[in-house]
Amino acid sequence: MHVVVCSIVYKICVLNSRRTLRGSPTNLRFATQIVIMCWYLLLIFGIWIFVSFLTYRYLIQKKNLFQKEVFFKKPSNVLFVIAHPDDECMFFGPSITAMVQPSLSNSSSRRKQAKDVYILCLSDGNANGLGEARREELKKSCKILGLADSNVLIHNGPVFFEDSQNSVWDSKAVADTLHLYIKKLNIDSIITFDKDGISGHLNHKSIYHGVLQLMKNSKRRVAVRVFILETVSVFRKYLGFIDSVFIKPNALICTSDWINRTNIQNAMAAHKSQYVWFRRLYITFSRYLFFNTFIPIEIY
Q1: Across the strands, what pairs with 78?
Q2: Distance CA 202, CA 197 (A)
Q3: 210 vs 53, which has greater pLDDT?
Q4: In whole angstroms, what is the distance from residue 202 CA to residue 121 CA?
Q5: In DSSP terms, which residues pair with 276 in a beta bridge?
Q6: How far, in Å, CA of 190 to CA of 109, rounded?
Q7: Where are the alpha helices (DSSP H) in 86-151?
Q8: What is the pTM of this model?
């Protein structure tokens, strides 16, 4: 895709230089400088892509520092907490596939694999009256990612969480709901959104604040480790694997190889009611289909 961008830039520069020549023959030197500048830009961009690709390949070979952190002492029961059906593949695909699909793990890292990986979706995505359809789409998507139906949980009360861009979920209600599932499933590690929610969606942010509420409540505090998915700028968000050059060397990272990235794209395609043109572009360019970077929550 980035090669196509280079070609487009080159064609634009050449066309502009030709127009300059036709309009004023005396501007030959100026047109030549434009072409040379375009070649320099293409060279710099090409080197950037090449270095980014090598960095991405290195991160894949390096495997998953995040997994080593999650499974530091023993295999863990891991709970991914999402707000809507499709969040699992739009944002958390690399980390889910890293834990449930063997193609990303060598024999040594498999010894520290999760005992069970669960997805907890706090709403059924019923914003447009498609709740039932989106429930089924979530199960199909998770099956492609490698999860069993029994490990895909869609919250159905007693507290109802509305799927809405304008709805802020009550932090205490989120905390109480999470406490229930943590105890029921014997969860050791929670993985969810950070305070910015990746896309800025209020429902995503509400989960983060619910987790904080749970961890700060001395009466209901639970012994779980919490990791939040790092939100990056819009510019970095759509750089794809090129964003790998901006990742810190000691970052907690999960990478998806090309096979698992294809699985993540297929999982998104399973959400037929949501698979519109801008989401097709998203799964092509988003860095969240290539890797996830996480931050452990520190509570003081």
Answers
A1: 117, 189
A2: 7
A3: 210
A4: 15
A5: none
A6: 19
A7: 87-90, 93-100, 107-110, 131-145
A8: 0.80
